[in-house]
Design goal:
Order of helices and strands: EHEEHHEHEHHHEHEHEHEHHEHHHHE
Distance between the termini: 18 Å
Radius of gyration: 20 Å
Shape: globular
Structural class: alpha/beta
Strand order of the largest sheet: 1-2-4-5-6-7-8-9
Strand content: 5-15%
Largest sheet: 8 strands, parallel, barrel
Oligomer: single chain
Helix content: 40-55%
Number of helices: 16
Length: about 325
C-alpha cells in the first residue's frame, strides 16, 4: 500500500518534506497548488514552489488554474521538472478557488470545457514521454462534485478523465460543501478502484486518516485502493507514515524538531513567507501537547523568529514533561 503526503497550502514545501523524511519518509509528496498563471508570468516566488528538495524523484506537481490555455502552457513547464508526474487539482473547495473556476470548479463547469483542458494536458504529457523516453504520470485529485451530484454523473466524469489519458485518481469522498466533521464516503473510493482495476488505473483514498486505527478502518472498507493520502495528520504527527509502516520510532525531542523546522523554513522559503508558513505548521504542532491552547497562543503570536524560539524555550521550561515524546502504536 502506497503512502502519500497530500498537497497543503503553505505546508507542502521542502522544509516539511525534510521533516517527514527524518522519520523515514513516504512514497509520494504532492506539492501545494501551483498557480498556472503565476508560474507562466514568472512571479518572484515561483522558484520556491518548484523546488523538489529533498527527494525530487518522489514529487508530484499539483497544478491549479481556471482557464485551459494557461493550464496547458503551465503543464509544459512542470512536466520537464524531476518527479513522478503532474496532478490537476479538481478537489479544492475553498470559495476563493472554485468561484473563479479552479479546484472543484472544473467539476462544475460544462463537461466539454473540462474535457478540452484534460485532453490537451494529457497530450502534453504523452508527447513529453514519447519524445524523452520518459514515464511521467498524469493524475487528478477530485471530490464527489456539488451537493446535488448523482452516482451516474460522478462516474461519467471519472470515465471522461480516464478516456483522456488520466492514469490515476485521488478521491476525497466528500462534496463541495461537506466539511471534515462529516464522515468521508469511502464507499466511492472502493467503487472507483473496482471500476478501473481491469484497466490498471490506481485509485488513492484521501480523507480522515489520522492514526493507525483510522487507516485500518479505511482499508477494511476499501481493500482495493492502491494508496492512502494523508495531509493534516502528517503536520501534527510527521512520524505517521513511519508509524503506519511499522517502523521503530526513537524518542522524539519536540523542541529540537521545532527548531530544526524553523531553520529549514529560513533556508527553503523566502523571508516574506516565513510568518505564514510557521504559523500554519505550529497550529498543528501545538495539538501534541496537554496545554495545546496555551502553546498555540504563544507560538502563533510570536513577533518574529527570535521571539518564536524564545517562546518555544519558555514553553518547554514550564512544561518539561512535554519535550520528549514516545510514539505508542495505536
Amino acid at each position: 500500500m502506497k503512502l502519500i503526503c497530500g498537497p497543503m497550502a503553505t505546508i507542502s514545501h521542502p522544509a516539511f518534506r525534510i521533516l517527514i523524511e527524518k522519520f523515514g519518509g513516504c512514497d509520494e509528496y504532492y506539492t501545494e497548488m501551483i498557480n498556472a498563471g503565476t508560474l507562466l508570468t514568472g512571479g518572484p516566488f515561483e522558484k520556491f514552489y518548484i523546488n523538489p528538495s529533498p527527494q525530487p524523484q518522489k514529487i508530484v506537481w499539483q497544478l491549479t488554474g481556471h482557464d485551459t490555455k494557461n493550464m496547458v502552457e503551465a503543464s509544459k513547464v512542470l512536466i520537464k521538472l524531476p518527479g513522478i508526474g503532474l496532478d490537476i487539482n479538481m478537489g479544492c473547495s475553498a470559495p476563493d478557488i472554485y468561484r473563479f473556476g479552479a479546484g472543484i470548479g472544473w467539476m462544475l463547469k460544462p463537461i466539454e470545457e473540462t474535457r478540452e483542458m484534460v485532453q490537451a494536458i494529457g497530450q502534453v504529457i504523452h508527447n513529453h514521454n514519447i519524445e524523452n523516453g520518459d514515464n511521467k504520470r498524469f493524475s487528478v485529485k477530485l471530490r464527489l462534485g456539488d451537493d446535488n451530484f448523482t452516482d451516474q454523473s460522478f462516474y461519467n466524469f471519472c470515465d471522461m478523465l480516464i478516456e483522456n489519458k488520466v492514469q490515476l485518481l485521488t478521491l476525497h469522498p466528500r462534496t463541495k460543501k461537506e466539511k471534515l466533521i462529516r464522515p468521508a464516503r469511502y464507499f466511492y473510493c472502493q467503487e472507483l478502484s473496482k471500476r478501473y482495476k481491469n484497466q490498471g488505473i490506481p485509485v488513492y483514498l484521501n480523507g480522515n486518516i489520522k492514526d493507525k486505527a483510522s487507516y485500518n478502518h479505511a482499508l477494511e472498507v476499501c481493500p482495493d485502493v492502491d494508496g492512502v493520502m494523508i495531509s493534516r495528520a502528517a503536520v501534527k504527527n510527521p512520524w505517521i507514515f513511519a508509524q503506519l509502516k511499522g517502523l521503530d520510532i526513537p524518542e522524539i525531542d519536540m523542541k529540537q524538531l521545532a527548531f530544526d523546522y524553523i531553520t529549514d523554513i529560513q533556508i527553503y522559503q523566502p523571508k516574506e513567507f516565513w510568518k505564514t508558513r510557521l504559523q500554519r505548521f505550529f497550529t498543528y504542532y501545538s495539538e501534541n501537547f496537554k496545554f495545546s491552547h496555551y502553546a498555540q497562543t504563544q507560538f502563533l503570536n510570536a513577533k518574529d523568529i527570535d521571539d518564536l524560539k524564545n517562546k518555544i524555550e519558555d514553553f518547554f521550561q514550564k512544561c518539561p514533561q512535554e519535550q520528549f515524546r514516545r510514539v505508542i502504536d495505536n
